[in-house]
Amino acid sequence: MELRAAANENFADAYRVLVRHCRGGEIREHDGLFAFVSGVPIPVLNGCIVTGNVSRSTLASVLAWLAATGVSHSLWVDGANVGERSLEIVREVATAVGFEVDDDYPGMVLHPVPLAPKPAHGVEIVEVDPGDAKSVTEFRTIWEAAGMSRPVAEHLFSTGFVGDPDVRVFTGRLDGVGVG
After folding, report:
1. Are 50 and 32 in contact (CB under 8 A)?
2. Which of 21, 40, 43 is nearest to 157 (CA)?
3. Which phi and psi angles does 117 have, rounded to 5°?
């Protein structure tokens, strides 16, 4: 169970780091619950993570707060870590406000962490240098090419975020061209 707790904490920590670099980002935390808003209207970048027992009033309050922000949001529930009574509460409160509750939580732990394989011929993986405008622009441009608007790319991948010591950002190149 300690690997599961590590996965839950890592999942929430990833959003903590993101939110602290987003204009208008906000976090709400309670026992067994972590909620956040990045300010970007993409559901996976705003939401509520339920990893333990929660009360009906706390969950209802947090989901109302998320709805009031006006951004699309997601709900994740670690069904294996939430007590049966709490899971009933989550299902009841969340479905009342339009969520379909799936308690199959997206946690993942690599233990032990394997060595990275050698990239295939023509593939290069390079760390984005936050002090190099060209490096940051290349990274953002790849996201724009994938359909993200420039303002959203700049909001999410600010110089502060890219330069955060807790963050490592990489660009993948194929035959010298940034692709991922």
Report:
1. yes
2. 21
3. -75, 160
Angle (deg, nearest 10), helices 84-96 and 56-69: 30
Per-residue tokens: 171: 């660009």
The size of the chain, in residues, is: 180
Residue tagged 């906000």 (tokens): 26
Whether the bond into 112 is cis, omega within 30 of 0: yes
Q: Which two tokens stand for residue 101?
A: 């509750």
Burial of 2 (0-12, 13-18, 19+ CB in 10 A): exposed
Instruction: Read off φ and ψ for residue 109, nearest 5 degrees.
Output: -135, 130
> How do residues 67-123 score in pLDDT, each as one tens digit?
999 999 999 999 888 989 999 999 999 999 998 888 777 677 788 889 989 999 999
